[in-house]
Design a protein that fits this description.
The protein is mostly helical. It has eleven helices and no strands.
């Protein structure tokens, strides 16, 4: 089941990339398409998931998005972050909530998600957490747009899996974006990770190897 899911995710990513490339090629072939036309579509919260303006941005927008992603991702490798105590690591097996409330727990779990090609779930959840802490209206609107492009658009290789009802809620919320625009979607992705990925993580060699490394005594000086 796990290998089938990975292969399916690989095929989805390939389709998304080919679709985005086709849109980009079409835009270049048009040549004299006014730049402000696509910007207007994005600014007015176009909620059509296949809208080409969601995948073609100016250089300034690309730089802003890159900065946002770097800030959202943080330290994604458990081995590069501060190691947990053995007690903390053991506590993660008792509940998913303990994993998500721990920064290093999220980092280790995210490392596992990357091996399953589902890291975008954690990235989306973290982006929503960051969004909820923002109070500046202009910044909120920009972050909402970036999150939509990165994780909601069907043309994004990092699209998260949401049902049609939640997508409808998002499209309605995009009319008046707030720091809670993706609240229902965030909860659905949290539940997905809890029910789907978390049990596999606890039973994985990634987790057991971490426990073993923490149980090993430090080398003598």
């Amino acid at each position: 089941m796990g290998s089938e899911r990975v292969e399916m995710r690989k095929r989805q990513m390939q389709v998304h990339q080919e679709a985005a490339a086709s849109v980009l090629q079409a835009r270049h072939s048009m040549g004299n398409t006014p730049t402000n036309a696509s910007n207007a579509c994005c600014f007015c919260w176009c909620c059509c998931c296949s809208c080409s303006c969601l995948t073609v941005r100016s250089e300034d927008e690309t730089i802003q998005r890159s900065t946002f992603e770097h800030r959202t991702e943080g330290t994604a490798n458990c081995e590069e972050s501060t190691k947990p105590t053995l007690e903390d690591a053991h506590s993660w097996a008792t509940s998913f909530e303990k994993v998500m409330k721990s920064a290093v727990g999220r980092s280790c779990f995210r490392q596992f998600l990357r091996t399953e090609f589902s890291e975008e779930n954690m990235m989306f959840w973290l982006a929503c957490e960051e969004l909820k802490m923002e109070t500046n209206k202009t910044v909120v609107e920009e972050k909402v747009r970036q999150i939509y492009e990165d994780f909601i658009s069907i043309l994004s290789p990092k699209e998260v899996s949401l049902d049609s009802h939640v997508r409808d809620v998002i499209n309605h919320n995009m009319l008046e974006p707030t720091s809670h625009t993706f609240e229902e979607a965030q909860q659905q992705i949290y539940t997905l990770m809890q029910r789907d990925s978390y049990p596999r993580y606890i039973n994985s060699t990634t987790y057991t190897d971490l426990l073993k490394s923490l149980e090993e005594p430090p080398p003598e000086p």
